Amino acid sequence: MTTFGVIGTGSMGSMLVRKMVETGQAGAHEIIAYNRSAEKALRLAGETGVRIAPSARDVAEESDVLLLCVRPLEVRGVLLDLRGVLTPDRLLVSVASDVTLNNLSAWSKARAVRAIPSITSECGGGVTLVAFGDTASASDRHLVLSLFGAMSSPVEIAEEHVEVMTALTSCAPAFIAALMQEFAAAAVRRSGIAPAVAERLVRETLTGTAGLLAASGTDFEGVIARVATEGGITRMGVDVIRQGAPGVFDEILVKTDARHDLVKAKIRETGP
Ligand SMILES: NC(=O)c1ccc[n+]([C@@H]2O[C@H](COP(=O)([O-])OP(=O)(O)OC[C@H]3O[C@@H](n4cnc5c(N)ncnc54)[C@H](OP(=O)(O)O)[C@@H]3O)[C@@H](O)[C@H]2O)c1
Q1: How far is the CA of 155 from the centre of ligand 1 (A)?
Q2: Distance CA 114, CA 100 (A)
Q3: Residue 195 lies in domain
Q4: Residue 53: what are its φ and ψ, rounded to 5°?
């Protein structure tokens, strides 16, 4: 039996625990969790039946695989506190953005993996980015890819590309929702239709488009070609997007990159 420990049961940690239990990747009795504020952990235990430990150390001591789901600036403190416990016989899976594999191996002796999940795993979709440290074994790879494969499409990546890929996967649900919100708002400004009606129309269309992409294996260009005939009204709209959107997305990536650099600098300031 593999025991999974989870430290930090906020938004991401609790979603991962729920999905692990729901998909049968781990039985509730195989998961032990701890959160700094007790209520969140107790709520999760009530929902899923997982065990709650009195401290992060208790979780680490019992775990074969430790999922670390605290915020990036909190990772170093947690790992240094557990330094004696996180030995090479344990697997550490950190979901924190901006905490590198080098950071993880400087702060703990456990075999290290970085995973960047997406909230879309909640409905069994989207991508989990995975970067393995040098000490991860073939069976670690199998375990991690199977764990995240049960709730998403896991994609193994080179760590150097993690930030831009995080924008495309983990941040993207918010970007896509914000874009669609603007589309609906423009229709409201133009016509005076009720905002709730505009949002519903766009939301249903977004879900339908995702279904079309998934069901037919069509790529974006294929969907565009099916709707936007040359010289037609839809094609005109596509052309407008192709003029305006590149600047928006370039700016998103410039700004998100700058933010990653800032967080990494803050992490460096906390010590080696
Ligand atoms: N949310 C996403 O979509 C997403 C996607 C990819 C990666 N991530 C990564 O996931 C990590 C967690 O993000 P989140 O959105 O889940 O944040 P969150 O909701 O704030 O969860 C973090 C949790 O960690 C707990 N915590 C903090 N220090 C702790 C400690 N020393 N021991 C035990 N628990 C501790 C916090 O407890 P309190 O209740 O006391 O604050 C909180 O419940 C981040 O590193 C983020 O980069 C998130």
Answers
A1: 22
A2: 8
A3: 172-269
A4: -100, 155
Q: Which of 34, 35, 127 to mutate to test the pocket of ligand 1 (most atoms within 8 A of CB)?
A: 35
Residue 218 banded pLDDT, cuts 50, 70, 90: confident
**Facing residues of 156 across strands?**
130
Number of domains in the chain: 2
- Starting at the earlier edge strand, list the strands of the sheet with 91-94: 51-52, 31-34, 4-7, 65-68, 91-94, 111-116, 127-132, 153-156
Q: What is the pLDDT of residue 125?
A: 93
| One domain for residues 26 and 131 | yes
Residue ranges of alpha helices (H) inside the chain are: 11-22, 38-48, 56-62, 72-81, 101-107, 138-149, 162-169, 172-191, 195-216, 220-227, 233-269
Alpha carbon of 46 to ligand 1 centroid (Å): 19
Distance of CA 179 to the CA centre of its chain: 19
pLDDT band, very low/low/confident/very high, at 119 (cuts 50, 70, 90): very high
Flag whether pLDDT at 252 surpasses 90: yes
Q: What are phi and psi of 87, to 5 degrees?
A: -90, 170
- In this structure, is residue 165 part of a structural domain? no
Q: Ligand 1 within 6 A of 96 CB?
A: yes
